[in-house]
Amino acid sequence: MNSKDIDKAAVIGAGTMGHSIALIFARAGIEINLVDVDEKALKVADERMRHALATLEDVGVIEKGRTGEIRSLIHTSLDLASCAGEADFVVEAVPEVPEIKKQVFAQLDKVCPEQAVIASNTSGLDIFEFTEMERPERLIIAHWFAPPHIIPLVELVPGPSTSQRVVEFTASLLERLGKVPVVMKGFTRAFIVNKIQNMISMAVFDLLGSGLASPEDIDRAVKYSLGIRLPILGVVQTLDFTGLDLVLDLGKS
After folding, report:
1. What backbone phi and psi angles, to 5 degrees, belong to 97?
2. What is the spatial distance between Cα 202 and Cα 180, in angstroms, rounded to a whole number?
3. Which end of the chain is more exposed for a tag (fewer CB within 10 A), N or C?
């Protein structure tokens, strides 16, 4: 199956991430079912999607008059089985509770079409350790960043049984959705971005704890240096630009 042939998808979980991910599929012309066990959550998600679309239209990201077309592709439901049963691609965006995710994956494995890919939006759980699926080769982590309909990056993390076809297919679909996928070689907690962000946080706490810099000056220092440079030069590019020999010498000292 080619990612260009996808015309139906499903998002399980209508919370902060789920409703935003649903918008992305609809904007790309893909019919999307947004599923949750809580009817109130679906109503809140519907209102959030209305607001997000209105904002995108106001700033010119979406052409005037397209919001109705986009909304017509989004359906909300309490019925996971019927919605996932006709989806070619399913995004799991339920709470970060292993037992809840385990139950959802088991359901999806039973009801999804044989060719369907199941992608988890977990931000750090090793779902491959606790999931029990008959077809684990179609399970992959696709970690989006809040708000997903604004932030381009999606981290892809294959498990031990994930097929290469699923990795390539998911990356291709994300590009069709206008996203920027990065593919890891395997699972590590926090993945790429949060691992780097966690190290920055540790350095910040060290500076604050030692009293060497104020919170305001730390934020100012980052905003007017790294914050400007990083969109142009990535972390590894910056190391190379600085000079790896110099970085090594500084590390030794």
Report:
1. -120, 115
2. 27
3. C
Over residues 85-107, mean pLDDT? 97
Considering the entire predicted model, what is its pTM? 0.93
The per-residue pLDDT for range 19-39, each reduced to its tens digit, is 999 999 999 999 999 999 999
3 state SS of 154: strand
Arithmetic mean of pLDDT, 132-151: 97
What CATH number has the domain spanning 3-183?
Answer: 3.40.50.720
From residue 141, give the alpha-carbon distance in Å to each of 70, 72, 124, 170, 233: 26, 28, 9, 10, 27
Residue pair 91/12 in contact (Cβ under 8 Å)? The answer is yes
Instruction: State residue 238's pLDDT score.
Output: 86
β-partners of residue 183 are 156
pLDDT of residue 87: 97
CA 253 – CA 236 distance, rounded (Å): 21
Mean predicted confidence (pLDDT) in 32-56:
97
Q: Where are the domains of the chain?
A: 3-183, 193-252
Cβ pair 92, 62 in contact under 8 A = no
CB 174, CB 24: distance < 8 Å: no
Measured distance CA(20)–CA(17) in Å, rounded:
5
CA–CA separation, 208 vs 153, rounded Å? 30
118 Cβ contact partners less than 8 Å away, ≥ 6 residues apart: 90, 92, 105, 108, 109, 112, 138, 139, 140
Terminal CA-CA length for the chain: 54
